[in-house]
Amino acid sequence: MSGGGNTSLGHKAFSRSPSHFADRITADGRDGWPVAAGRYRLVVSRACPWASRAVISRRLLGLEHALSLAVTDPIQDDRSWRFTLDPDGRDPVLGIRFLGEAYDRRETGYPGGVSVPAVVDVPSGRLVTNDYQQLTLDLATEWTELHRAGAPDLYPAGHRDEIDTVMAEVYADLNNGVYRAGFAHEQRGYEEACTAVFRRLELLAGRLAGRRYLVGDTLTEADIRLFTTLVRFDAVYHGHFKCNRWKLMENPVLWAYARDLYQTPGFGDTVDFDHIKRHYYQVHTGINPTRIVPLGPELAGWLTPHHREELGGRPFGDGTPPGPVPAGEEVPVAGRP
Questions:
Q1: Helix axes 187-208, 252-262, angle to 10 degrees
Q2: Residue 48 is a catalytic residue
Q3: Catalytic one among 179, 190, 257, 262?
Q4: Residue from 40, 48, 155, 213 carrying the catalytic annotation
Q5: Which of 10, 14, 48, 246: disulfide with 1, CB 3.0–4.6 Å?
Q6: Contact (Cβ atoms closer than 8 angstroms) between residue 81 and residue 43
């Protein structure tokens, strides 16, 4: 999710830019960035679905000790994502006020947007990657030496083709589709995008009616990518992005699936509804010029029984759930049900 330029959203056709910095952090360091505990810092906004994928993956895999976390203010200004939640408005590890400073150290005068998630090399203060599509796959497959004992296999080799297919469909119609609907600047484009959103949701509901997870009988990267959109659906996409044919909580299968994941350690304990709502409604002034943040929806339903365990499935496969959220990384009370 990029910072800056939000007043233009809704006034011109929406197009998501490809990640400009696509270096990979790998076990063999082939791009010059070897996996190493403590070397890198993951910068995220809890408002952003793309960044939230990385927060969930990091937690499920137990990489908290190896990859530190910086959480930005959900409200950007024209200078990009800000560290105004930290003392003195500076990230305590990187020493910078704006994520854009790490981008500048990597490429002076970079013309693109400053996006999260971003991984920064702590010794040099330089951005390494903002490739949100590849980042979580690498956390699952290249960082294995640093995974916790009992970490799940989120990208199992035997299911990768199916996972890739499901993720591509979900990305085109749903993850990115809600943005194409919300930022549409003319009726036809909105209707095409919104129609695709709900067509995909209905197909997913059919897929999940008799199985607990999207691929196989365990949690995978595909579930993470679907969850980060579903958890924002009623709070922001239904109203703010006009994806309002029905609410998530009105679809019995998807609402139960989303609650199942929310109540699974590593998912709901990373979600900050306060950050999500304030970002979308206060930053996208091209869509919501008053910047008023709605009071709803009621969040208590996220904690109600879902009964999805009756479908079987082994959430963590042969592994175990992650432990408690590390001190200092808990979602504030204002962001939780």
A1: 80
A2: yes
A3: 179
A4: 48
A5: 48
A6: yes
